[in-house]
Amino acid sequence: MTSVKFGTPERFEITLGWLKDREPRELGPAHSGWSSGELKISVGGHVLTLHKRNGKDRESVQWYLLPVFEWLADQWMSLFHEERFAWHENSSASAAISAFMATRRLIAADDELGREQYRAVQSWWFRHALRAADSSALYPDLYFRRLGNDIELSWTARQPVHAPDGFRYCLTPGTATVAVGEVVGPLWQALNWFVDSASVVEAADRHALAQLRLKLDHLNSASAPEIERYYLPQRLFARISRAKEKIGLSTESTRHPTAPAIAFMDNAVLMFGGASPDICEDDVESLLSFLLSRSGMQESPALAQLVDTTIGAPIAAPFEEGYELANALIEQLDLLDGRSFVDIAGILSDLEIEQIEQALVTDSIRGVAVAGMQFAPAILVNTTSQFNQTEAGRRFTLAHELFHILYDRARARCVTHTSGPWASPGVEKRANAFADMLLMPHELVSKYLTAFDMDGITSAAKRMRVGRSALIEHLYNLNEIDEMQREILRNG
Ligand SMILES: [Zn+2]
Question: What is the pTM for the complete model shown?
């Protein structure tokens, strides 16, 4: 058997080959019985299809290939463009873990709302999980999901439900994020290889193959604006399109050179990745005008020097990553120069990041950060948000948004991020941890917190210009106080 490979195993690779049928056509499945082949998938150097069968290691799954390619073609747009989950996700877990947990949480729902949510989870699963392609095949539990200008590939160690005796996957759960093109390029080639190299004899099989070819042609004819809409809920996308037209913002999404997919998503569209689907027309316009007002300018060399585009998505430990980056920045900028607090406004003005206070209609947006190659950097603080009612709260929002500006730049080297409960939880937790550590660094805490009682907390918080409850939570996260002490201080 000769096999073909698309992609690179260190990022994403799919290896395929046709197998000779051992059985006559009429004994195979009616629809796909002609398409015996083998499939191997590698991600980040791991062979995800590696399994044991009767004591032997095998790298490929051998099965009928038609269903997996039909699924790939049918789900293509959602698979590589839909970022949001169909449920409210609080954890920073990958799609593979989140979808599993959401299913487990809702499977026994006995009220109408719960059942509706369960159906939404199931249909999301169907659009993103490889196992949805063919329940009779023994594929690994692999998920594809858009993440800004990346694709998140995540998998669990769960065995296939109908695995025969002696069949076992030897995986540990994992996640990798790779550039969009590194996944869609190879998969598009694989789809085309499948339809071009298949040999069919029966009329019905020829028909199935012709249908698949039609689907590919249809996908391939989609323009960038037609594809980018899959990134957001339909209603929200329509609102953004209208507002963009009104204020004269054109679409800047870039299509992959060969595959029908958006390699780089329009910054204006990315901006609403963290916004409520119900954000009103006025706010959409306000945010887009804010973006437009910053475009066509440069960031300062001082800021450019601090930006790190290698940080990537928060995969392992959002808290630790946030703390580490804050500590490094404190040292690098020598922020503790004898003052009792960290002067976040001063840092921003040194870096020429403008701070804009604006009252949006929606209170679920805390702040918005815009920065990057085509933008003059700025932070919008939404004065309607509960968090921004105090000076301490506004300082925290500025520090949080500074994180996005420095470390959450997409592959396009820009960031247009909206912060709030609709933004990706891992991304938000990491920026929050950064803000905590930046405004309450070890050195200041140990200097000003002389007693772990209410008076001590109040006085230290005042000197550091942070909220009292923020300091209590910070001390708990740093293991300086236990749950009991936190409870007492919270109620004090
Ligand atoms: Zn944020």
Answer: 0.90
The two three-digit tokens of residue 328, written as one number = 């490094």
Instruction: Report the separation in Å between the CA atom of 409 and the middle of ligand 1, taken as the mean of its atom positions.
Output: 12
* Residue 368 alpha carbon to ligand 1 centre in Å: 7
CA of 427 from ligand 1 middle (Å) equals 7
d(CA 122, CA 331): 48
Sign of CA dihedral 289, 290, 291, 293: positive
Q: What tokens appear for 22 in the block?
A: 């051992």
What string of pLDDT tens digits covers the 492 residues of the chain?
Answer: 689 999 999 999 999 999 987 778 888 888 999 999 999 999 999 999 999 999 999 999 999 999 999 999 999 999 999 999 999 888 888 999 999 999 999 999 999 999 999 999 999 999 999 999 999 999 999 999 999 899 999 999 999 988 899 999 988 899 998 999 999 999 999 999 999 999 988 899 999 999 999 999 999 999 999 999 999 999 999 999 999 999 999 888 999 999 999 999 999 999 998 899 899 999 999 999 999 999 988 899 999 999 998 888 776 688 999 999 999 999 999 998 889 999 999 999 999 999 999 999 999 999 999 999 889 999 999 999 999 999 999 999 999 999 999 999 866 678 999 998 888 888 999 999 999 999 999 999 999 999 999 999 999 999 999 999 999 999 999 999 999 999 999 997
* Distance from the alpha carbon of residue 455 to the mean position of ligand 1, in angstroms: 31
CA distance 361 to 446: 40
Q: Name 429's Cβ contacts closer than 8 Å, sequence gap at least 6.
A: 92, 314, 318, 319, 322
Considering only CA atoms, give the Rg of the chain.
25
Separation of CA 428 and ligand 1 centre (Å): 5
